[in-house]
Amino acid sequence: MKVDGKPYRSIWLDADGCTVKIIDQTKLPWIFEVLALATVEQIAHAIRSMQVRGAPLIGATAAYGLAVAMRQDASTENLERAAALLGKTRPTAVNLRWAIARVFQKLLHTPKAERAEVAYAEAAAIADEDVAINRAIGEHGVRLIAAAAKTRPRVNVLTHCNAGWLATVDWGTALAPIYLAHDQGIDVHVWVDETRPRNQGAQLTAWELGKHGVPYTVLADNAGGHMMQHGMVDLVIVGADRVTRSGDVANKIGTYLKALAAKDNGVPFWVALPSSTIDWEMTDGKTQIPIEERPAEEVITVSGRTKDGSLAAVRIAPEGSAAANPAFDVTPARLVSGLITERGLCEANETGLRSLFPEHG
Ligand code: MRU
Prior knowledge:
This protein is of the alpha/beta class and 361 residues long. It has helices at residues 40-48, 55-72, 76-87, 94-108, 115-149, 175-183, 200-212, 224-229, 255-265, 285-288, 297-300, 350-356; strands spanning 2-3, 6-7, 11-13, 20-23, 34-37, 155-159, 188-193, 216-219, 235-238, 242-244, 249-252, 269-272, 278-279, 301-305, 311-315, 328-331, 338-341, 344-346. The model has no long low-confidence stretch (mean pLDDT 97). 5-S-methyl-1-O-phosphono-5-thio-D-ribulose (MRU) is lined by residues 53-56, 93, 161, 163, 167-168, 173, 200, 239-241, 251-252, 327.
């Protein structure tokens, strides 16, 4: 997607062909800063600290992490060490494990002297595939928005967190159908959940949509139910960090509450995901998906820009307050209207997923 007229992906290689470049997402929307990552430790830090985030982008970044590690030292011991280091950075998005396993398996069968080159090629393939997959998700998902547009002058879509191009290599998952709808001339407006505690909605989704010219309105997280009750939401589309083969969806904390409100108000609740987000081994999201617990500090402080233009974090709870910070929740399949994948739309259940991905039978 374009930033001030210049096309960007969320991850790319420097002109030297080996240093990894990313946009530091902890600084957006205030500062657009590109970071150069030259070691696997820097890449692990970027994932852990959420300089890069979003399930598909975490996977692509980890793949490049293995490539960088192989450039440093192509031994099998270093490959295992790098895979373990990257694999521990964030637990919920299954794309991380998927991408590491894909590159790792390829390298095990590659002579040491060729490992770095093969790893860079595989990471580039993962990144390029992600772009094509998200574009396909957009093309399938836009049908839902186009159908809604037939009966109303403007389609109001609510989304949670950031599942846009910043969360993937390009296009996004939940936002891809929205970008395509907008580009096709459909009047689409987005309700952007702020997404406390880290505010990915208010800070990243709002920034992305604004740069692309898509009309949006930021909502306090607690407002979504009220908006649905009053007929102001036609469709919910969210992303996912892990989807079990039974159709349960782990996504950013607060997604579950939106799904409950959508169900109660008859609002369609769709989840957009690439197939790398499906965990074919899991059947029960609530008990099986590992939920990341992040620092309490994220809950008891809020970061932003002050009137004088400087960036600041302010405390919003009394000194000494305890805070819990589960970063994701699981929306049971029964609350999901359907899944939007690169191969089309399906029901959120094993039959639906297997109909699109029969090779996982
Ligand atoms: O903690 P984050 O910001 O990495 O969480 C991201 C989300 O929950 C997104 O909604 C999800 O990864 C889908 S991204 C296409």
